[in-house]
Amino acid sequence: MKKRVAVLISGRGSNLSALIGAAAAPDYPAQIVLVISNIAGAAGLARAAEAGIPTATIAHKGETREAVDAEVDAALRAANAQIVCLAGFMRILSDGFVRGWEGKLINIHPSLLPAYRGTRVHERVIEAGEALSGASVHFVVPELDAGPVIAQEKVPVHPSDTPEILAARVLTIEHKLYPAGLRMVAAGEVRLEKGLAVFG
Ligand code: GAR
After folding, report:
1. What does the alpha-carbon distance between residue 58 and residue 91 come to, in Å, rounded to a whole number?
2. pLDDT, tens only, 159-180
3. Is 121 among the domain residues?
4. Residues 68-95: tens digit of each pLDDT
5. For residue 61, what pLDDT band results from cuts at 50, 70 and 90?
6. In which domain, by residue range, is 98 found?
7. Is 129 a domain residue?
8. Closest CA to ligand 1's atom 8
9. Closest Cα to atom 14, ligand 1: which residue?
10. What is the pTM of this model?
11. How far apart are CA 157 and CA 122, in angstroms?
């Protein structure tokens, strides 16, 4: 049985697109059953709709973080989601939400975690003169971008790189890495145990 996956987005949705593409293969162990955006009109919503996937927008309208997350949680439970993928979802989730989905909530981040958590990743990588960057798929824990890594891939950083050029190079590998990481989680090849990623 394919695992039922929901994807949370905030924008363009190119990683969502990569997941939709991968999930179209008959032997892929996951199917995307719901896409939720916290931003109305996010481009990724149109991509999901094109693929016939139900979508929802749950935007912050002045309620507490916990109240918004409870709405997201209810939508995920109503769709019988078993795994939740954050794909360019740029809102911090409450500790209660994260704990409720522990081991089932994964994210892609455009750095070689644990290096360069947070925002402005590519600017900071270039400023620091790094020779390598990359992307990481990881389990989400309450501390931002601190969860154990499921899969990681490196790219070179060139002296002439701008943040935009580096972001595009990293994004290319994200589109392979996220489907590969989700496949591992959905197939039960990796799980979160006592705060660690356990393989096999
Ligand atoms: C991706 O590069 C993703 O790694 C990053 O946002 C971009 C979303 O692009 N996520 C984060 O920085 C999370 N902290 P997309 O909407 O085209 O998938």
Report:
1. 12
2. 999 999 999 999 999 999 999 9
3. no
4. 999 999 999 999 999 999 999 999 999 9
5. confident
6. 3-110+135-144+177-190
7. no
8. 88
9. 109
10. 0.98
11. 10
